[in-house]
From TrEMBL:
Subunit architecture: Homotetramer.
Assigned EC number: 3.5.1.2
Annotated Pfam families: Glutaminase
Organism: Pseudorhodoferax soli
Residue numbers binding substrate: 68, 118, 162, 169, 193, 246, 264
GO molecular function terms listed in the Swiss-Prot or TrEMBL record: glutaminase activity
Official protein name in the record: Glutaminase
SUPFAM superfamilies attached to this UniProt entry: beta-lactamase/transpeptidase-like (SSF56601)
Keyword Transcription regulation carried by entry: no
Superkingdom assignment: Bacteria
Length: 310
């Protein structure tokens, strides 16, 4: 990968312009104790262009907990192996509610609205446990390492912290199990789910890992072999646009106009199809669970470059 001279000044300019605002708006996620002590003033950005150039600014090379951004990659892994059968248990509609909401699950008989809310990602994790058994975590790590082009690891402290306090996820999983919508033991499915959320990656690694989403399923580091098909890639991007930022997806589409996936660690990955992937990290979250400064940085990026799908 080479440097991206066209975009380096853009990232530097955004980090400089927003630097004063670091940690001033929103709150670091506190419901996962190991995340609560992260310094809210971190701020990083990175991008990878479709022709393999890279740029990063601020804390763009510093690893953080990717949390729900992992849902893009577990979905990709499940789609690689299951194709359309995946959708028998999971919907594709925006939820209109919080990422960890329980209410819809009862109305909809344990079938989550989409793969990016917690219930949907737990259902995807169940499919992966069916596919890979006790090797599911290793399979995910191998995928992430191959996509990032360097070793990626779970933060075991974060995973343990989530397991110790993940009462709501336990409720969601047990509720789906009660409807017969999980095939594997709840503990095993949640162990995978908590670990995927505890992946530690930097903005640069994330932008690189997601690069196939801007290249019709072809990754710059995967000579010849596609990560997923062009059609699957289009569909993952569509789900990111409509469901990737939970109940703020409409606002993200309106203000930014890019497929995005956020996590409560404060990261957001965005895709400009055929052009680039972009990742931002600022730990303080707004009321919808999305990085407050990250959203502003993405808005500024789109305003300054004119890159948007609309
Ligand atoms: O399960 C949870 O609540 C967290 N591990 C992940 C939630 C998350 O990142 C939602 N994103 N905004």
């Amino acid at each position: 990968m080479s440097a991206a001279p066209e975009f380096q000044p853009v990232l530097d300019g955004i980090v400089a312009a927003l630097s004063e605002l670091r940690g001033t708006e929103g709150q670091v996620a506190s419901y996962i104790p190991a995340l609560a002590r992260i310094d809210a003033r971190h701020f990083g950005m990175a991008l990878v262009t479709a022709d393999g150039q890279e740029a990063q600014a601020g804390d763009g090379a510093m690893p953080f907990s990717i949390q729900s951004i992992s849902k893009v990659f577990t979905l990709t892994l499940a789609m690689q192996h299951l194709g359309e059968a995946l959708w028998e248990r999971i919907g594709r509609e925006p939820s209109g509610s919080a990422f960890n909401s329980l209410v819809q699950l009862e109305f909809e008989q344990g079938r989550p609205r989409n793969p990016f809310i917690n219930a949907g990602a737990i259902a995807v994790a169940d499919r992966l446990v069916s596919l890979f058994g006790g090797g599911a975590k290793a399979e995910l790590l191998a995928l992430m390492t191959a996509l990032a082009g360097e070793p990626v690891a779970f933060d075991e402290e974060v995973a343990a912290s989530e397991a110790a306090t993940g009462f709501r996820n336990l409720a969601l999983a047990n509720f789906m199990k009660s409807f017969g919508k999980l095939d594997n033991p709840v503990e095993q499915v949640l162990d995978l789910y908590f670990h995927q959320c505890a992946l530690r990656m930097s903005c640069l690694q994330l932008a690189r890992a997601a690069a196939y989403l801007s290249r019709d399923g072809h990754h710059p580091l995967w000579a010849g072999r596609a990560v997923c098909t062009e059609r699957q890639t289009r569909r993952i991007n569509a789900l990111m646009l409509t469901c990737g930022t939970y109940d703020a997806a409409g606002e993200f589409a309106y203000r930014i106009g890019l497929p995005c996936k956020s996590g409560v660690g404060g990261g957001i990955v965005a895709v400009v199809p055929d052009r680039l992937t972009l990742a931002v990290w600022a730990p303080a979250l707004d009321a919808t669970g999305n990085s407050a400064l990250g959203r502003q940085a993405l808005e500024m990026f789109v305003a300054r470059t004119g890159l948007s799908v609309f």
